[in-house]
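Thread: "does anyone have the structure for this chain?"

Original post by V.I.:
We have the sequence but no experimental structure in hand. Need at least a predicted one for the grant figures.
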Amino acid sequence: MTNDITIRPAEGTWVIRAGGAVLGESSKALELTEEGYPFVIYFPREDIGMAFLDRSDTTTTCPKKGVANYYSIMSKSQTYIDAVWTYENPKDEVAEIKGYLAFHVQDGIAVEQL
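Reply from O.Q.:
Generated one for you, C-alpha cells below.
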C-alpha cells in the first residue's frame, strides 16, 4: 500500500442516498483515507441498486490508484453526472477497492453512517 493511502473496513452500516432515494446500504463498506483529502466510503457493488446508475464514457487516472470509470445517477428529479467512480483494475497497492463504488457527495447526494 502507498504510504499515504489507508484502506480499512468502515465501522457500522453506511447508506447512500440520491435525490431522496436510497441507492444502497452496506455493513461491508471500506473507508479509504488519502493524505490531504477527506476520507471516502467505498460500497460493494452488490449492495448498490445498479439500476439507478448509468455508465458514462468518462475516465480519469490517479497515479496511486489507477484508472477510474464513472457512472451517473438517474433519480426521479435529476441526473447527477459522473457522481460515482470505481477502479475496476486498481493498482496492486489498493486492490481492496476493486468491485467497490464511491460517490461524490454534493447537493442531493449523501453518504451517511446509520
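V.I.: this helps a lot. The radius of gyration is 13 Å.
O.Q.: and The domain at 5-113 is CATH 2.170.150.40 (Metal Binding Protein, Guanine Nucleotide Exchange Factor; Chain A).
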